[in-house]
Amino acid sequence: MEKLDRGTVAVRGRDGTLVSWRSLATDAPGLAFNVYRDGKKLNGEPVATSTNYVDTAGGAGSYEVREVVNGAEGAASKALAIDGFLTVPLQRPAGGKTADGKEYTYNANDASVADLDGDGQYEIVLKWDPSESKDNCCAGFTGNVLLDAYRLDGTLLWRVDLGRNIRAGAHYTQFQVADYDGDGKAELIVKTADGTRDGAGRIIGDAGANWVSGSGEIEQSDRTGSRLTDDGKLMAGFMGRIVKGPEYLSVFEGATGRVLDTIPYPSKRGEDGDNPGADALKARWGDGYANRSDRHLAGTAWLDGKHPSAIFARGYYARTTIAAVDFAGGKLRQRWYFDSEAAGVPQGYSGQGNHQLSVADLDGDGRHEILYGAMALDDDGKPLWTTGMGHGDAMHVGDLDPTRPGLEKWGVHENMQMAQNRGAAMVDARTGEVLWSTPATKDTGRGATGDIDPRFPGAEAWSAASPNLFDVKGNVIASTRPAQMNFMMWWDGDLQRELLDGTKVSKWNWQSGSADVLLDAQGTASNNGTKSNPALSADLFGDWREEVIWRAADNNSLRIYSTSIPTTHKLTTLMHDPQYRAAIAWQNTAYNQPPWPSYYIGEGMPK
């Protein structure tokens, strides 16, 4: 559990200034608060039943909250002022030219947060994505991927340049940030290669090595990204791909960006090393041009219930390998390794992965398991279950049905043969039992869930496979569903979850069957093309409601939006829930998905 400060914010709104602060899991029972503006106490009785206060006369001024224990004031927390949004200035990197002369610029892309310097406040780790980044299906050179660390005032702490031997694209770089060694300061763990430069300017591996393919083609069966020849062959180009050369996993000090340790990447691309031929690559992963073998996922999991481990995975269309790595005593060490094609692994674990993973305590033993699309691994890396329904583009894992014990998973599926024409399914996350599903005849690319209708207990669910809205038991409750099937977030004052899509936050109006816009963040931009993701959505500060980070349209800053709407509900900061905290670590992975806590938040939740 992170040692966080109160994270007090003062957000100006139409009805005054909302002052809100964190309720921490370590707070003593009965703890209350006084709220001050410019040294003057605003409340009468200490605030005890919520962690927010509206100053209706609020305007310019300095706010703080003070803890009250047995009638005596204690620690004070000064509020961060937010007027509309908090601007975090960025040092946008200069663009450049690829190896074949194409110009590119940099866009602020996915982000994560952690306390990098041990002061109890979050810093932001941001990925810079070159405009010439590529999907795995397509050949072509890219610019370098960069990772920056910023304080909330825009101070740049460091920049890591992953170098030319890490290709840019949504499926290549998945970065994890957490306090892995328990020293109170977070580290960054990420896949690296020859030429990666750390935050202190040190080069990892061979600075002069160039493992980027310059030319060549290979015949294959994938249509997307291929060239069709006159005689009907599909050819995939090698240009810009990296199919040879050493691969590393490195850990960087959060405060400085200095590399602390580097080991060989746990999952090698080749059976016997880093340099397989095309035939060997195809035999191992399903193709010979690194489309499938360079599909990487990552996460952070508390596998022993006490210490975080980094999870790095490779492959999901066919072979799947997943490694858990610990960082202690200044060294990275492999905890366990799973290979879906290894001897002794039951059939049905290959080809089950999604474009993302999830981490949760599926069996109630206090230790995290890995939910990898349509299959799950136990905390020791052993197979737990597989539905056999195959790959999908989206999934949500949480206590979606509070009337059932444990957690549920709502996910969509792509391969109708493997899924047996089930486009979306609600699954018992402990056993893999399919509770109910919706039919489909083709890839169901989108789906979402959340408590958006207070008339029905639990989370509602919907997907692109059906025009209907379902309750958590699979009953049709409306013939109209939200068009938004992306992120979910808690924004307003009730317990229903709102719809986050593109640069808008909307609330489902169950009476009209439409979505009402609550926030339209003009001047910002979403990420990852049609995925329309924010840089990050998380409970960053203030009370338990969630913030959202978007990049400014000019990429010169990030904007953090926090609600100005009061709430009567008092919840512990979501970041002190292990499942939710793990979700913020993995949120940047490939096709980003929203975070879920380990318990139910919604209409009828226990007080």
UniProtKB/TrEMBL annotation:
This is Rhamnogalacturonan lyase. The lineage of its organism: Bacteria, Pseudomonadati, Pseudomonadota, Betaproteobacteria, Burkholderiales. Pfam families: RGI_lyase, RGL11_C. GO terms for molecular function: lyase activity. Residues 86-606 form the Rhamnogalacturonan lyase family 11 C-terminal domain. Residues 1-79 form the Rhamnogalacturonan I lyase beta-sheet domain. It comes from the Bacteria. InterPro entries: Ig-like_fold, Integrin_alpha_N, RGI_lyase, RGL11, RGL11_C. The keyword Nucleus does not apply. Transmembrane segments: none annotated. Keywords: Lyase.
